[in-house]
Amino acid sequence: MAQLVVGFDLDLTLIDTAPGFRQVLEALGAELGVEFPVAEMTARLGPPLDMLLAPYLPPEQIPAAGDRFRALYPEHAITSVPVLPGAHEAIAAVRRHGGRVVVVTGKFPDNARLHLEHTGLDVDVLEGWVWGVGKADALRREGASLYVGDHVHDVEGALAAEVVSVSVLTGGCTEEELRAAGTHAVLASLEDFSEWLDRHVVAARS
What we know:
With 206 residues, the protein is α/β, with parallel strands linked by helices. The chain has 10 helices and 6 strands. It has helices at residues 18-32, 38-41, 49-53, 62-77, 87-96, 109-119, 135-141, 152-161, 175-181, 193-205; strands at 5-8, 100-104, 125-127, 146-149, 164-168, 185-187.
């Protein structure tokens, strides 16, 4: 039987990036003289940064603002960001089944790597700056059979890769939205993942 490979999203799936994201937006807004609606912008993290900035900046300013956001990020958004409950245990569950762990995220890869190093999340592969169906290529390349995320666009990526979509309710999407997008399983958080994975592996091998 092929080795188990499980993909995970990063923001609001493995780590709670909302506090750090808010701090970076506040710092960026202070530099640009723009008062971003920070609470609204961080309520449903998932889409690329350029899309989040688009309603509040002229199009010609967005590339430079994005670059500045990513430059400010390490100072404001690494040490303030914790792992979500169950994240380490979820990865350990994959390891118990002899599996590999792949993080596939829309986040800038260098900043995503800083999060993994700071939190001690034990992953085999990090693929950054991919979103929605764009995540499918990385999942296929790594041989993933599951992808765990919090957003409807994570579901889209899993379905495009033809792998099992597992959704957690720690992001901004509701169970109804995730099920409408086609996810195969909805968990309250990663605290429920270990037990779910045990059942899934037994079923797959029977």
